[in-house]
Amino acid sequence: DARVTQTPRHKVTEMGQEVTMRCQPILGHNTVFWYRQTMMQGLELLAYFRNRAPLDDSGMPKDRFSAEMPDATLATLKIQPSEPRDSAVYFCASGWGRVENIQYFGAGTRLSVL
Amino acid sequence: GQQVMQIPQYQHVQEGEDFTTYCNSSTTLSNIQWYKQRPGGHPVFLIQLVKSGEVKKQKRLTFQFGEAKKNSSLHITATQTTDVGTYFCAGSYGSGNTGKLIFGQGTTLQVKP
Asked: Which string of DSSP letters, residue by residue, matches B32-97?
């Protein structure tokens, strides 16, 4: 049963610390998306990649967030330094990036910054 | 910019009542998708609509895509407690096939048994 795997599932950290979230997309998918979900803002697109190349990261605070795909099986989202307002659930999703652009979501990383 | 508006934000119904959520875009969509997120879970794909005026059914769920491809709706007949969750519409624009979706804010459905 193919699925998107995200680690860690939960992360509690102190303000100012670096946070790294990882995502393993479904094998064969060429598009990877990072979303942030909060009660106030809903589901926000932070960045996405196609064939490992960043297509759009306009939704991401550039000064502290960075997203990379070191290889086809791993996408990372880093926050440095973290702030309490970054507390949210971060979802990774992958897809084929075609007309049938269905996205398959991972279980998410619940981040709490104290 | 491209934006998808979804209403209502919340809906409380008695089990057995019907439920409808609406999605609107200011510009023409190439297709629209619907996702369901259970409490504490992640969004899960339900269906995709591509053609103008398209109607699709999944058991008690009926999905419609407007003639102008600017709006869509999800209707649930005779809700059950298993329908609880947040329903998102997500629109795709243009023909670039980047895979990018613009998600609505979601409608959270509560069902009283």
From this structure: EEEEEE-TTS--EEEEEE-STT-EEEETTEEEEE-TTSSEEEEEESS--GGG-EEEEEEEE-SS--
Are the beta carbons of B7 and B105 closer than 8 angstroms? no
Q: Residue B43 is encoded by which pair of tokens?
A: 């969004």
Looking only at the bridges linking them, the beta strands covering B10-14 and B107-112 are parallel
User: Residue A98's pLDDT band (boundaries 50, 70, 90)?
Assistant: low
CB contact under 8 A, B45 and A97: no
> How far is the C-alpha of A104 from the C-alpha of A111, rounded, in Å?
20
Single-letter residue type at A15: M
Does B8 score more than 90 pLDDT?
yes
What is the tens place of the pLDDT at every residue in A32-42?
999 999 988 88
- Whether B106 sits inside 8 A of A42 (CB atoms) is yes
Tokens 């519409």 found at: B89
pLDDT tens digit string along A9-53? 999 999 999 999 999 999 999 999 999 999 888 899 999 999 999
Q: What value, to the nearest 5°, has the Cα angle with vertex B43 and ends A12 and A46? A: 60
Shortest CA gap A34–chain B (Å) = 11
Residues of A in contact with B101 (CB under 8 A): 45, 101, 103
